[in-house]
Amino acid sequence: MCFSQRFAKKLLAAVADKWDSHVVIIEKISPPDWKSAPAGRILEFSILHLAMSEMVVLETRHPIVINEAVDLAKRFCDGSAPRIINGCLRTFVKDRSAAAAPKPQALELKQEVSV
Protein backbone atom coordinates (compact mmCIF):
# COMPACT_ATOMS: atom_id res chain seq x y z
CA MET A 1 0.00 0.00 0.00
CA CYS A 2 1.44 3.38 -0.97
CA PHE A 3 1.87 6.39 1.31
CA SER A 4 -1.16 8.27 -0.02
CA GLN A 5 -3.44 5.28 0.59
CA ARG A 6 -2.15 4.85 4.15
CA PHE A 7 -2.57 8.58 4.78
CA ALA A 8 -6.12 8.55 3.40
CA LYS A 9 -7.05 5.60 5.63
CA LYS A 10 -5.59 7.29 8.71
CA LEU A 11 -7.36 10.55 7.90
CA LEU A 12 -10.69 8.83 7.32
CA ALA A 13 -10.35 6.95 10.63
CA ALA A 14 -9.47 10.22 12.38
CA VAL A 15 -12.53 11.98 10.95
CA ALA A 16 -14.79 9.13 12.05
CA ASP A 17 -13.21 9.02 15.51
CA LYS A 18 -13.51 12.77 16.16
CA TRP A 19 -16.80 13.36 14.32
CA ASP A 20 -19.06 14.04 17.32
CA SER A 21 -16.63 16.30 19.16
CA HIS A 22 -15.86 18.24 15.99
CA VAL A 23 -19.57 18.73 15.22
CA VAL A 24 -19.91 20.53 18.57
CA ILE A 25 -16.87 22.71 17.83
CA ILE A 26 -18.01 23.49 14.28
CA GLU A 27 -21.40 24.56 15.67
CA LYS A 28 -19.58 27.12 17.83
CA ILE A 29 -17.14 28.48 15.24
CA SER A 30 -19.18 28.47 12.03
CA PRO A 31 -21.29 31.44 10.91
CA PRO A 32 -25.02 31.48 11.74
CA ASP A 33 -26.10 31.40 8.08
CA TRP A 34 -24.16 28.15 7.59
CA LYS A 35 -25.95 26.59 10.56
CA SER A 36 -29.38 27.49 9.21
CA ALA A 37 -28.84 25.48 6.00
CA PRO A 38 -26.28 22.75 6.77
CA ALA A 39 -27.35 20.60 3.81
CA GLY A 40 -26.20 23.37 1.49
CA ARG A 41 -22.79 23.43 3.14
CA ILE A 42 -21.89 19.74 3.08
CA LEU A 43 -18.61 20.31 1.24
CA GLU A 44 -17.58 23.17 3.51
CA PHE A 45 -18.33 21.17 6.67
CA SER A 46 -16.46 18.19 5.21
CA ILE A 47 -13.39 20.35 4.60
CA LEU A 48 -13.58 21.57 8.22
CA HIS A 49 -13.86 18.01 9.54
CA LEU A 50 -10.90 16.84 7.44
CA ALA A 51 -8.72 19.77 8.47
CA MET A 52 -9.55 19.57 12.17
CA SER A 53 -8.93 15.82 12.25
CA GLU A 54 -5.63 16.15 10.42
CA MET A 55 -4.42 18.74 12.94
CA VAL A 56 -5.63 16.92 16.06
CA VAL A 57 -5.08 13.25 15.29
CA LEU A 58 -2.37 13.21 12.64
CA GLU A 59 -0.66 16.27 14.20
CA THR A 60 0.07 17.98 10.90
CA ARG A 61 1.20 21.57 11.48
CA HIS A 62 -1.76 23.93 11.38
CA PRO A 63 -0.44 26.44 8.79
CA ILE A 64 -0.10 23.61 6.27
CA VAL A 65 -3.55 22.20 7.00
CA ILE A 66 -5.27 25.59 6.90
CA ASN A 67 -3.59 26.46 3.60
CA GLU A 68 -4.70 23.17 2.02
CA ALA A 69 -8.25 23.56 3.36
CA VAL A 70 -8.50 27.08 1.94
CA ASP A 71 -7.16 25.83 -1.41
CA LEU A 72 -9.84 23.10 -1.48
CA ALA A 73 -12.51 25.67 -0.68
CA LYS A 74 -11.27 27.99 -3.44
CA ARG A 75 -11.45 25.16 -5.92
CA PHE A 76 -14.74 23.54 -4.96
CA CYS A 77 -16.86 26.00 -2.92
CA ASP A 78 -18.56 29.35 -3.47
CA GLY A 79 -16.90 32.76 -3.15
CA SER A 80 -17.06 33.35 0.61
CA ALA A 81 -16.25 29.80 1.74
CA PRO A 82 -12.42 30.04 1.62
CA ARG A 83 -12.40 33.11 3.85
CA ILE A 84 -14.89 31.59 6.30
CA ILE A 85 -13.06 28.25 6.44
CA ASN A 86 -9.82 30.12 7.10
CA GLY A 87 -11.45 32.02 9.97
CA CYS A 88 -13.10 28.93 11.44
CA LEU A 89 -9.86 26.95 11.41
CA ARG A 90 -7.83 29.81 12.87
CA THR A 91 -10.40 30.12 15.67
CA PHE A 92 -10.18 26.36 16.22
CA VAL A 93 -6.37 26.52 16.49
CA LYS A 94 -6.49 29.55 18.81
CA ASP A 95 -9.08 27.93 21.11
CA ARG A 96 -7.16 24.67 21.15
CA SER A 97 -3.91 26.46 22.01
CA ALA A 98 -5.63 28.41 24.79
CA ALA A 99 -7.09 25.22 26.25
CA ALA A 100 -3.69 23.50 26.18
CA ALA A 101 -1.82 26.39 27.81
CA PRO A 102 -1.29 26.05 31.56
CA LYS A 103 -3.46 28.32 33.65
CA PRO A 104 -1.54 30.95 35.69
CA GLN A 105 -3.07 29.64 38.94
CA ALA A 106 -2.02 26.08 38.13
CA LEU A 107 1.47 27.32 37.38
CA GLU A 108 1.65 29.09 40.78
CA LEU A 109 0.52 25.93 42.58
CA LYS A 110 3.14 23.90 40.75
CA GLN A 111 5.86 26.35 41.80
CA GLU A 112 4.71 26.27 45.44
CA VAL A 113 4.80 22.48 45.52
CA SER A 114 8.28 22.29 44.03
CA VAL A 115 9.76 24.68 46.63
From TrEMBL:
GO CC terms for this protein?
chloroplast
> In the UniProt record, does the keyword rRNA-binding occur?
no
Q: Tell me, which GO biological process terms does this entry list?
A: DNA-templated transcription termination; transcription antitermination
Give the matching InterPro entries. NusB-like_sf, NusB_fam, NusB_RsmB_TIM44
The alphabetical list of record keywords is: RNA-binding, Transcription, Transcription antitermination, Transcription regulation
**Signal sequence residues:** none
Spell out the molecular function terms from Gene Ontology.
Answer: RNA binding
Q: For the NusB/RsmB/TIM44 domain, which residue ranges apply?
A: 6-94
Record's family?
A: Belongs to the NusB family.
List the protein's name: NusB/RsmB/TIM44 domain-containing protein
Which organism does this record belong to?
Brassica cretica
